[in-house]
Amino acid sequence: MFKSIQTKTMFFLLALAISLIIIIGYLTVFAMDYAAEDLKHNDMMDKAEAISYMLSEELTADAKSPDEKLLGKVVSSKLEGNNFMINSKGETIGYQDKELPYKLPLKESSEIQEIYKNDKYYVAAIAEIEGSEGWYFCTEEATSDYMRTLNNIKTIIIIAIIIILFILWPLGKWISFRIQKPIEKLASDAERIAEGDISRGITVSEDNELADIAQSFNLMLNKLKDTMQQVLDKSAEAVSMQEVMAYVDETYNALPSGIISINNIGEITTFNSTAEALTGLSAKELTGINIDNPTPPQIKKLIKELKRCLSRGSLKLKTITDIKNLAGETIPVEYSINIQFGLRNEVIGAICVFRKIDDIRSFEESANRVKTMEALGEIAASMAHEIKNPLTSIRGNAQYLEFILKEKELSFDEVDIILHETDRLTTMLNRFLNFARPKLPEPEKTDLSEIMEYVTVLISREMPDNIKIKKNFEKIPLVMADREMFESVFLNLMLNAIQAMPEGGKVIMETHYDKKRNMVCAIVRDNGSGIPPDISDKIFDPFFTTKDTGTGMGLPIASRIVEMHRGIIEVESIEGEMTEFRIMLQALPQADDEEE
User: Fold this and answer.
1) Helix (H, G, I), strand (E, B) or coil at 327
2) CA quadruple 434, 439, 440, 443: dihedral sign
3) 351: which strand partners?
4) In 82, 130, 198, 559, which residue has its Cα 20 to 30 A from 476's Cα atom?
């Protein structure tokens, strides 16, 4: 009858479900019949005994000898509806029918009887009236009358069972289809592979036993592919690998930045042609040497930082240092260091990317960004005009609507949402404009320690109790800086540090003077969650954020302000341990400080 195992299973389960529903329905109806009948019998028996007791009390009080007339007078007020009197002689009082199918109890004073008369079944409760010389009180009721409600309930149950059966059948067919379809796809894919198409494996969208089967099948297929690959001609394989390695080498050498990488045992593994051109060193001589042995002094600083970052698992971004070439010339470079991970997420080494800069206070990349930002500023100004006007109109109409609703004592959350979202969009637009077309700085002689101290006081009012601030401000020379702009820079860095420590921690703020570079250094360090390596190159991109409520403009604006002051912003981070932002500005001559 049924071809597939799934359909047979579905039919069996459906038949089992239907049988269970019918059995449960029958048992429920039977139990209701039994319970209703038992309750009715008890109720009628209680009624008969109560009235018989009252009649016996009246006879005792009002009659010396309970003859038939006196008895009829006493009980006439009690006989109404289906109530009547009967004695052992078959005489009745208040009984209207011709048939008299009642038997008086012999051993007990009361009992329940089921009788048939007038083509109906009745239930009668009979109780003896004490002191009446053989008279009994009887109350009766047709079975069909008190079972009417129960019969209605039975009808409802039967209808419900029928409805459930009509629902179960299409539901069973749908379940069977859901089960059968992925199995058919699995069989089709297996047939395709059996015919020789091993370009792709078996995919199952659902996470169940079929997925386990598909995974096992794919594992077998991968092993088959590996075996076939091993059978390939070794010479062709070697040529292919050489082509890949040649392409990788060509790509590394074509990069405009120098690249030095080391593996996890401290050997130099990469030294590209740009690095050779900057330093004058030979990649052939450097590749494979261990950094624990003496290294050329030209790249000693970079190798030292590579070794330090590899041992700590930290990354460094946009950091400035000096290297030398073979002619002894000093070359200022900007470098970044990141950790390299293998296929199993294990540490396999560290890589340093560095690029020459003409002046320690400016970057070639910064110049390009300034040109781009100038063009972006013009576009942003036009966008602001086109966007702000509709926003103002939307907000004004929303406020008017809110006013009208308040007058009518109505309130809609949607109006508050409109106002909130227009304000948020306006704030985001303003931040974008500040980034794309910022105001020109108005530098003045400024002490960075004083700015950081002010920001610390400013933010301490909203500082969580589980976060502490440690300050270490040295005596430093003055710098030329726009105080208001740098208040914004340090405030952003402080907020980022606090948000990186939801469980609490410490923020360290430092200043010191680098005499060798004649630069003032301001540091904001936290022991929070750190920067994941996979997003390290995006943290200064506009609108990039990992926060649910952030706009992603804090760090880009901070970097923009520092660059406008011909300064440097460096970043070092260890994921899960710390992040350090280091801002460096050119110091004013000490003589100027003394005059001040």
Assistant:
1) coil
2) negative
3) 261, 338
4) 559
Give the largest CA-CA distance in the chain.
149
For residue 530, the cross-strand partners are none
117: Cα separation from own chain's centroid: 73
The answer to whether 95 and 84 are in contact (CB under 8 A) is yes
Q: Which residues of 165-184 are buried (b: 16+ CB within 10 A; e: fewer)?
A: eeebeeebeebbeebeebee
Its pTM surpasses 0.85: no
Rounded distance between C-alpha atoms, residue 458 and residue 137, angstroms: 97
Q: What is the mean pLDDT of residues 49-61?
A: 75
Token pair 């394989």 is at which residue?
237
Nearest to 587 by CA among 475, 452, 486, 439: 475
DSSP state of 122: E
pLDDT for 199: 61
Q: How far apart are the C-alpha atoms of 513 and 476, rounded to whole Å?
A: 6
The number of helices, as runs of H, and strands, as runs of E, in the chain is: 15, 17
Chain mean position to CA 324: 52
Most confident of 64-68, 127-131, 269-273: 269-273
Least confident range from 307-321, 342-356, 541-555: namely 541-555
pLDDT, mean over the chain: 76
User: What is the rounded distance in angstroms from the CA atom of residue 327 to the CA atom of residue 462?
Assistant: 55
DSSP string spanning 179-196? HHHHHHHHHHHHHHHHTT
pLDDT higher than threshold 70 for residue 53: yes
Residue 371 bridge partners (DSSP): none
Taking residue 320's Cβ as centre, other Cβ atoms within 10 Å add up to 18
The mean per-residue pLDDT over the stretch 495-509 comes to 90
SS3 at position 160: helix
- Give the distance, in angstroms, between the CA of residue 463 and the centroid of all CA atoms in the same chain: 28
Q: Say if CB 348 and CB 264 are below 8 A apart.
A: yes
* Position 493 pLDDT exceeds 80: yes
If pLDDT is split at 50, 70 and 90, which confidence band does 107 have?
low
State whether residue 594 is helix, strand or coil: helix
pLDDT of residue 64: 47
CA 274/CA 355 separation, integer angstroms: 9
592 contacts: CB under 8 Å, gap ≥ 6: 445, 478
Token pair for residue 561?
A: 């302000």
State the pLDDT at residue 234: 47
Residue 400's identity, in one-letter code, is Y
pLDDT computed for residue 363 by the predictor = 44
Closest CA to 555 of 581, 584, 592: 581
- Ranking 168-172, 204-208, 561-565 by mean pLDDT, the lowest is 204-208
